[in-house]
Write a structure and sequence with these properties.
The complex is a heterodimer of chains A (about 425) and B (about 250). Chain A has about 425 residues and is an alpha/beta fold. Chain A is built from 9 helices and 21 strands. Chain A has 2 domains: about 5-280, no CATH class; about 385-435, no CATH class. Chain A has helices at about 5-20, 30-40, 80, 120-125, 130-135, 145-150, 385-395, 400-415, 420-435, and strands at about 65-70, 90-95, 100-105, 115-120, 155-160, 170-175, 185, 190-195, 200-210, 215-225, 230-235, 245-250, 255-265, 270-280, 285-295, 300-305, 315-320, 325-335, 345-355, 360-370, 375-380. In chain A, the strands form 2 sheets. In chain A, strands 1, 4, 5, 7, 8, 10, 12, 14, 16, 18 and 20 form an 11-stranded mixed sheet that branches. In chain A, strands 3-2-6-9-11-13-15-17-19-21 form a 10-stranded mixed sheet, with helices on one face. Chain B is an alpha/beta fold and about 250 residues long. Chain B is built from 8 helices and 12 strands. The chains are: A alpha/beta (about 425), B alpha/beta (about 250). The interface of A and B includes residues 396 and 410 of A.
Chain lengths: ~425, ~250
């Protein structure tokens, strides 16, 4: 077989995808996919000459034959069990290799009118919310990987919370990857709509219990309507051979409150593009992150907080702990548009390098076009505090235990800002496993 | 003999700070090391605790039958050596309880003892916190973060009480304390004083020694112990000032 590049492989994948669609080719969604694929073909795999990809080289994708699969596998609950949070009585949705799996999902105490279904089902129903928002919040424009995802839209999670509904228990979505097919390409597409005065917590949890190579390219679109509250957590524990590209876009109506936590430890290569947009006044947005990488791992966080409206507040705090030869990238842009008076925007990025050969590229960007605003940003890259280390040692605490304590301490402000206690405990255990 | 320092010379960045220290401390004794600023008092305390910024160019330190300079800082602590810091370090995100629990269990593990269970440990903390009037709510707060100067020093003595060292070195524990805090700290130290341990008090001022009565007083000047005596020496120093020592030393060397 001649060596094909990533785009040629994508074409092969698309043709096979179409063959497997059978009767569904005539649904309106398919012309949407085809249009997207045409657009995808006008784009090229980004290179490091592209400012947005300056520190993150994806040329390796041209050497990999990633392949979509329509195989729906079933697994026993044992495979999922270890990714649950102890004592958390929550609704659980499981997708296996990108496909919604009913047997591994259960919904608890869902108020009337709330819909939590697979995107495939929502597409079949021609759900009006899907028609209105899908592909509109995360648009394809200039985005190679989003266009790729949109071209293959097939399954994922659709959550619709009508106005005035409070969902007490978090909704835990597990994206479980375990494929017999090597180099499996998995592209979940999610759409969450939070109605006026409604409130919910959603956890997107990407996991694998294999050490195989696969490619997750996920896109999540979120709309938070007036005065709605969404607490969103994304926890990435993919296989250490995996490629993970995740995009999330959020449109925030007035007085809405969106909070995001990205906790990332997995994948050999991970790129996260999070964009929040204030489309009404008085909104509040929090973007927190914690990444812990080692060996040859690369983690990249690209965020954009778009203050397009006045009187909005945003807080962003990303923290990284790097070991081995790992590389971290943080590119956080805060855009304050001319109308966005009385904006408060705070951004910070702190990284600890535990080895000499780990590297971090941190690039905070503030673009301010309004004059009555409060904005700040800062970035630090350093080692663990040596004075604190010595102090702990003089109390009889050895190098390893002292390092673990200081890492827990470093991570603690991101962890403690997560409201779900069982999830905090789960994260503390991840840190303990990694550093004790 | 618990501690024996023989002809200790130490430098930092090529500057010799300690120029031949000899000191013997036995169980049950309290020694005060006094001296003007820059005489090397804190350097000595730091070297005993294992700070690595200093180069030992000559001399030996023997601690309870072991060559102290060959022990890592954590092993010194596990062998029963404790330094109360002049400037206790703030560690946001690590609670006092967590620090002490880890410390106690690491020390017990080193000694081949069972870890304390949660209830025993909490009882120990409660009992010892009373010794320095430390409110229990301090236990869940981050180590020294946002503590006042006095609270930090009381916290050092509290840690000492929990870890129950054989040799405690108090580095300027009195500096910056008002008289009430000074009394609390001194009272804590006196309660811990026994025939099974020894205390080295490093201080610039005589004031603390009104409350912690030393058996021996040493005057450190320009990196050497230039005078040793009983507790009366501290009073004499207070009265005559450090210039008295400086003049005497210069006369000798002239």
């Amino acid at each position: 077989m001649n060596k094909m590049n990533f785009k040629e492989i994508a074409l092969n994948n698309f043709l096979e995808f179409e063959r497997n669609l059978n009767g569904e080719k005539d649904l309106p969604i398919h012309s949407f996919r085809k249009k997207s694929f045409e657009y995808f073909n006008t784009l090229d795999l980004p290179t490091i000459k592209n400012e947005e990809w300056k520190y993150t080289n994806v040329s390796f994708l041209n050497n990999e034959y990633f392949k979509i699969s329509n195989q729906k596998l079933d697994f026993s609950f044992d495979h999922i069990q270890k990714f649950l949070f102890d004592n958390l009585e929550h609704s659980l949705i499981t997708l296996v290799n990108g496909f919604f799996n009913k047997n591994l999902s259960k919904l608890l105490d869902i108020p009337k009118g709330v819909e939590i279904i697979s995107l495939a089902e929502a597409l079949k129903l021609n759900h009006p919310i899907v028609e209105k928002y899908l592909g509109k919040i995360s648009d394809n424009k200039d985005n190679f990987f989003t266009s790729l995802n949109t071209s293959f839209i097939n399954d994922g999670v659709f959550i619709y919370i009508p106005d005035g509904k409070i969902i007490e228990d978090p909704i835990h979505i597990i994206f479980y990857q375990n494929s017999i097919q090597e180099n499996n390409l998995v592209q979940p597409r999610n759409l969450f709509f939070i109605g006026k005065n409604s409130q919910v917590s959603i956890i997107e949890h990407y996991v694998s219990d294999t050490d195989t190579k696969y490619f997750t390219n996920s896109v999540t679109e979120i709309f938070v309507d007036e005065n709605g509250i969404l607490d969103h957590i994304r926890l990435q524990e993919e296989s250490l051979q995996a490629v993970h590209i995740g995009r999330m876009d959020v449109n925030q109506e007035r007085y809405s409150n969106f909070s995001s936590h990205l906790i990332s430890t997995g994948a050999k290569f991970s790129r996260n593009e999070f964009n929040t947009r204030f489309i009404g006044q008085g909104g509040e947005s929090t973007l927190n992150g914690l990444f812990m990488i080692d060996g040859e791992q690369l983690f990249d966080a690209h965020t954009l907080i778009d203050h397009a409206q006045p009187n909005c507040n945003s807080h962003e705090h990303y923290k990284g702990i790097l070991q081995g030869n790992s590389r971290g990238v943080f590119n956080g842009k805060v855009m304050v548009r001319p109308d966005a008076q009385k904006t408060n925007a705070f951004q910070e990025n702190n990284t600890i390098l535990l080895s000499e050969s780990a590297t971090m590229n941190s690039k905070p960007q503030l673009e301010i076009f309004a004059d009555d605003v409060k904005c700040s940003h800062g970035a630090t890259v350093g080692k663990l505090n040596e004075e604190a280390m010595f102090y702990l040692k003089t109390r009889g605490i050895g190098q390893e235990a002292a390092t673990a304590m200081l890492i827990h301490a470093f991570a603690s402000d991101v962890i403690t800002s997560i409201k779900i206690e069982a999830l905090r405990d789960y994260l503390e255990k991840i840190i303990t496993r990694k550093f004790n | 003999m618990l501690l024996e320092i023989k002809n200790l010379h130490a430098s930092i960045n090529g500057n010799e700070i300690l120029k031949g220290i000899d000191l013997k401390v036995d169980f049950g004794e309290v020694h005060a090391i006094m001296g003007p600023n820059g005489s090397g008092k804190s350097t000595l305390a730091s070297i005993l605790a294992g700070r690595e910024d200093y180069e030992i160019t000559e001399g030996e330190i023997w601690y309870n039958g072991k060559n102290l300079l060959e022990l890592a800082p954590e092993d010194r602590a596990r062998e029963g050596l404790f330094l109360a810091f002049q400037y206790p370090v703030e560690i946001p995100g690590v609670s006092n309880t967590n620090l002490l629990k880890t410390a106690v269990n690491e020390i017990r593990k080193y000694r081949g003892e069972e870890e304390l269970d949660a209830i025993e440990f909490l009882q120990l903390l409660k009992e010892k916190s009373k010794l320095v009037n430390l409110d229990e709510k301090f236990l869940s707060r981050s180590v020294n973060e946002g503590f006042s100067g006095g609270e930090k020093k009381r916290n050092e003595i509290f840690q000492m009480a929990v870890l129950n060292p054989k040799l405690a070195i108090l580095d300027e524990t009195d500096s910056g304390l008002d008289i009430d805090a000074l009394r609390i700290v001194a009272n804590g130290v006196n309660t811990l004083r026994s025939n099974e341990n020894a205390i080295v008090v490093v201080t610039h001022y005589q004031r603390l020694l009104n409350y912690i009565i030393p058996d021996y007083v040493h005057v450190l000047y320009q990196g050497k112990i230039v005078k040793s005596g009983s507790k009366e020496l501290a009073l004499e120093l207070e009265e005559k000032g450090y210039d008295w020592i400086k003049n005497q030393t210069e006369e000798v060397s002239a």
